[in-house]
Amino acid sequence: MSNKKKIFPLFFTLIIFFYTSPCHSADVIIVGDTQIKPVADAVKGIKDVLPFSVKAYAPSDVKNRLSSIIEKEDAKVVIALGRDAFESAFHLPETIPIIYGMVVSPPNVKRQNITGIYLETPVGEYISVINKFFPRIKKIGMVYSSGTERLLESTDYPHIKAYKAKDSYAFINALKSFGGMDALLLLPDRNFLSPTSMEEAYLFSFRNKIPILGISEKYVKDGAFFALVFDPQDIGRQIGETAKAVLAEGSASKVPVSSPAVFNLYINTDTAKKMNIQMPDEFIKRAKRVYP
Question: Which of 114, 160, 178, 236 is the most exposed place for a label (fewest CB within 10 A)?
Fold first, then answer.
């Protein structure tokens, strides 16, 4: 037999193997827009810890056909990163476990076979930092809404003064009640944290020498004293570990929802100086980034 005749059957066999081999299926489907850097970092973190086959899709690529993709891939679990991804995954049959991530707060849904990692920094994390580095900060003011009320439930701190607000106007009015507070801790609530209300918050902060704490690096750049912010890649690793637990259990229902385990610290030293806040060296060394 000629070499050409020998090569052709082998080539044909390889093609058949390529299209039918189970190695092209995916145990885990990730839905998320990897053009967004935090999402891309989270995907990297997921892949770092998962020993299973993983495939990532953009939300636009799975719209109205996620179920068929899962069936084709024989996927065992779906990870939805971001609100758009979650909207695509939420309508899947309850037999398919869903793990959400890159959302600020836990989705308010009745679905059973679901768990995830939400991004809100627990109030207790800020209290721990304050107790360790700034014991003179005793009285803390907070404004919350029905969407963030749960963040106060597990907070064991006797000197929190909290006001409930439903919009930006109520938030600005609540600021007037915080005279005499040692700090104002912001909660991640889109109901009232508008550019206008934050401008008022910064004016209130500097006029009264009451530092703002939280929520993001951007807020620190704008004038907040410090913020504790989730690390996207570590969030991905948490989600990956959650996926391993879900695959071991066969269901997401038995795996508890959790908040980030690692937070990056951002500090504005100019704000600290204007507020006459003395920062320990250990606090500064802990920072991911310090803004002058």
Answer: 160
